[in-house]
Amino acid sequence: MSATRILFIGNSFTNRNDLPGMLTGLAAAARPGFDVETGRVIANGRALKTHWERAEARHAIASSRWDYVVLQEQSTLPLKNAPRMHEYVRSFDGEIRKSGARTVLYMTWARRHEFERQAELAKAYTDVGREIGAIVVPVGFAWQRVLSHHHNIVLHDKDNSHPNLAGSYLAACVFFATLFGRNPAECEAAHVPGLDRIGTEVCRVLRETAWETVRTLA
């Protein structure tokens, strides 16, 4: 069976803790395992508008065969200027469709001190996702569920914005459940560097929450 090929376009929210690598590891550890190959066009702090204007991302889409292309907007732009985000999601979606791939939107999370804005941030992703028929990976909703029900689990890094290792692991589990329709509990033995620092019980909660979130929204 050929590998599933995924191109990630985004910034440090994707790159921190190697989210693409985590997803590859989860797929390899599934029962039965399967191959995921990833590419990335990543620049810290970069918005989709800048990715579009600098053309590297468009070249990456057109120059190889991808099954999915993941778009991750700069973390606060969906709150500050959702129309601009939507404009460049639509632009990228046209190129992605021409290449034969599916557009995937990486719904991120609100900053720790203003998490009450998560619904607003999520709406920016779900509205344009519904409009263009994209797959929306509801990572932000999974974060909201964990932070609401498990107050001992920390997902933000010390800057209160980026994900710590647990936050990225949760994101990878939500990607796995959304794109492949499989329960991340299959991947309990996935080799992710540093996962032992999170702890077995926390990892279990994160896997279960990822699956519950995706099933609830299906």
Question: Can you put this structure into words, describing what you see?
Answer:
The protein has 218 residues and is α/β, with parallel strands linked by helices. The chain has a single domain (4-217), classed as Rossmann fold. The protein has eleven helices and five strands, in the order βααβααβααβαβαααα. Strands 2-1-3-4-5 form a five-stranded parallel beta sheet, with helices on both faces. Helix 7 (118-132) links the parallel strand 4 (102-106) and strand 5. The longest helix is centred in the middle third of the chain and has 18 residues, at 82-99. The model has no long low-confidence stretch (mean pLDDT 95).
Strand order of the largest sheet: 2-1-3-4-5
Helix and strand element order: EHHEHHEHHEHEHHHH
- What's the CATH topology name? Rossmann fold
Query: CATH first level: which class?
Result: Alpha Beta
Radius of gyration: 16 Å
Number of helices: 11
Architecture, CATH level 2?
3-Layer(aba) Sandwich
Low-confidence stretches: none
Number of strands: 5
CATH-wise, what's the superfamily? SGNH hydrolase
Can you give the mean pLDDT?
95
Alpha-carbon distance between the two ends: 26 Å
Which descriptor suits the 3D outline? Answer: globular
Query: Which structural class fits the helix and strand makeup?
Result: alpha/beta
**What share of the residues lie within helices?**
40-55%
